[in-house]
Write a structure and sequence with these properties.
single chain, 19% strand
Length: 610
């Protein structure tokens, strides 16, 4: 890692509660003097100016001021353009996400000094031929059984069944989780060994306009490879996802060895009236660039504990790029509570949106609601790592999201072949249902599918290997071998059709398309193996079906050590004349005999067969 920046003096106390958003209903999150413009491919091919990708690092070169396209350049001059930069690099050759990557390469970040509002300027650009879309740039903000001594205080890990999941998997160093946030404390002893190279994408300009009552501090201008956290928020998020665990130090993470990729997109912003009120704030352009960078550098999971009320196409494109590259994207629902406007990027398609609950399984009062909630996680008084090599508790949907991102990383650690869509389905389907009223549906607008369950998710992704008999019986019973059954003192019984299909896993009991043979045996022994194993202790038996008996291990032979036992078999459908209905063709489902006949009482009350 690069030499880290100095960290600001810590001014917060040991507990940080969820705060009211800076950019609420009365405070606009539109950044003055900034636009995002995407050109259509034909127009982009006509550009004659040299336009750099990313911020301009040299003070002697301000960047391009024109496109070399008359209509666009006239409007740029009218708004008094100060710089034009490309937001994303060109699409890689043979990219699996070319459909998204190509137009992203024609997206530009424009700064200007004129008096026109970003909304007005964007509307003018969208009227021009060759412009795909134009929109203002917007602020986003933070939504805030190991032997580690503080594990007992980490109620969230127990709530989501991490200890049981750790019996199966604790994480893989091959799975990288990108924390797109305020950065990470690069030398925190619990995090440093797990970090991979990240980046600092914060580019708010030399003199960014802060919302009333706040001012920016620290590093807020210029991209580099030093994503040092200056707020503490990203460090707290990272520690929940993964930190050194079971090491008798500090706290535990949801995963113990997955890697963290710090992508800094939010700068330090401080309340003028309260120096301890430190937040993370950044722009939608920097977040989009951070998503693209994380995907291109190997992230399998992205966590975004941030949001804002404005829907931007630039972030939609970046999220779509991540999804197209099979990356799991997790985002916080927001801290505005009931009635707050929808928060993005949580509401974008295919993003796993996470709400917050407390230790009693109730919705946190600050957690936003909506039909797009996928799942819930612990978000009140969550203990984790924080900057200055320390630990603290924080509250917010920012804290809930990394619990879910961590479980997604555990799932991929045990089964890396899963797609992003499959991981999302597993998380939702295995969640522990939550509702405020017994009649409420699941999913619902307060909790989604419920509380994320690490154990259930891991078991679904990687079913436990259980050795069980293929066939079970309530009591020792018959020996059945297709295509014939030997029965003492009677004509051998043959199968209706020489067939028996055994499939694992499936359902707890076997079934047939039509009433037929019942197999009732205490065990199954296959040649050259002890027992036939199934992913789940369950069997589905279909007969009649295929010409041969099949097992998960080929050429299994069914052996019942007790031999034939006479008497009524509990699976017997009854005598043929009473137990079956014939179809229109006269076929009854049996052949011309009843294979259970040896078990019925004769007219004198004695059993047949024996």
């Amino acid at each position: 890692m690069a030499t880290r920046k100095g960290k600001p003096k810590k001014t917060s106390n040991n507990t940080i509660d969820a705060k009211e958003p800076i950019f609420g209903e009365k405070v606009s999150n539109i950044i003055p003097g900034e636009l995002i413009v995407q050109l259509q491919q034909s127009a982009a091919a006509s550009i004659t100016s040299s336009i750099a990708t990313g911020p301009i690092k040299s003070s002697s070169f301000t960047g391009a001021l024109t496109f070399g396209i008359n209509a666009l350049d006239n409007l740029l001059a009218d708004i008094k353009v100060t710089s034009i930069t490309r937001l994303h690099p060109p699409a890689p050759v043979s990219s699996v996400a070319m459909e998204v990557a190509v137009p992203m390469a024609s997206t530009f970040h424009i700064r200007y000094s004129g008096k026109k509002s970003p909304a007005e300027a964007a509307a003018q650009f969208e009227k021009l031929e060759g412009v795909e879309y134009a929109e203002p740039n917007c602020y986003r903000e933070t939504c805030v059984t190991p032997n580690d001594p503080n594990f007992a205080s980490q109620w969230g890990l127990a709530k989501i069944n991490c200890p049981a999941a750790w019996d199966r998997v604790t994480g893989s160093p091959n799975i990288v989780v990108a924390v797109i946030d305020t950065g990470v404390d690069l030398d925190h002893p619990e995090l440093a060994p797990l970090l991979v190279q990240g980046t600092d994408m914060v580019n708010l300009g030399t003199n960014p306009t802060a919302p009333n009552g706040f001012h920016f501090e620290g590093d807020f201008n210029g991209v580099d490879n030093d994503p040092q956290d200056e707020v503490g928020h990203g460090t707290h998020v990272a520690g929940t996802i993964a930190c050194l665990s079971n090491n008798a130090v500090g706290v535990a993470g949801v995963t113990w060895s997955c890697r963290i990729m710090p992508v800094r997109v939010l700068a330090r912003i401080v309340n003028n009236a309260n120096a301890s009120d430190v937040r993370g704030t950044g722009s939608s352009t920097d977040i989009a660039a951070g998503i693209r960078w994380a995907v291109d550098h190997g992230a399998r999971v992205i966590n975004m504990s941030l949001g804002g009320s404005t829907d931007t196409q630039v972030e939609r494109d970046a999220v779509a790029y991540a999804i197209a590259h099979n990356v799991v994207v997790v985002a916080a629902m927001g801290n505005g509570g009931i009635g707050a406007p929808t928060s993005f990027p949580a509401a974008y398609p295919d993003v796993i949106a996470v709400a917050a609950i407390d230790s009693s399984d109730h919705r946190a009062s600050f957690s936003q609601v909506g039909s797009h909630i996928d799942i819930s996680g612990p978000g009140v008084n969550v203990l984790s790592t924080v900057w200055n090599n320390s630990y603290t508790t924080m509250s917010g949907t920012s804290m809930a999201a990394p619990h879910v991102a961590g479980v997604a990383a555990l799932v991929l650690s045990c089964n890396s072949s899963l797609s992003a869509a499959q991981v999302g389905d597993i998380l939702r389907q295995t969640a522990r249902p939550l509702r405020d009223n017994p009649a409420d549906p699941v999913p619902n607008n307060n909790y989604g599918f419920g509380c994320v369950d690490a154990q259930a998710a891991v078991n679904r992704a990687c079913p436990p290997k259980v050795s069980v008999p293929i066939l079970t019986c309530p009591r020792k019973s018959v020996l059945i071998a297709c295509p014939s059954i030997a029965c003492p003192r009677t004509t051998p019984i043959t199968c209706p059709k020489p067939s028996l299909l055994i499939k694992c896993p499936s359902v707890p009991t076997f079934s047939c398309p039509k009433p037929s043979l019942v197999i009732s045996c205490p065990s199954v022994v296959c040649p050259k193996t002890t027992l036939v194993t199934c992913p789940h202790p369950s069997v589905l038996t279909h007969c009649p079906s295929i010409p041969a008996t099949t097992c998960p291990i080929p050429s299994a032979t069914i052996h019942c050590p007790s031999g034939l036992v006479c008497g009524h078999n509990p699976g017997d459908p009854g005598p043929i004349e009473h137990g079956l209905m014939q179809d229109e063709s006269g076929y009854s489902g049996w052949e011309s005999y009843d294979p259970y006949a040896p078990y019925y009482e004769d007219d004198d009350g004695s059993k047949g067969c024996c």
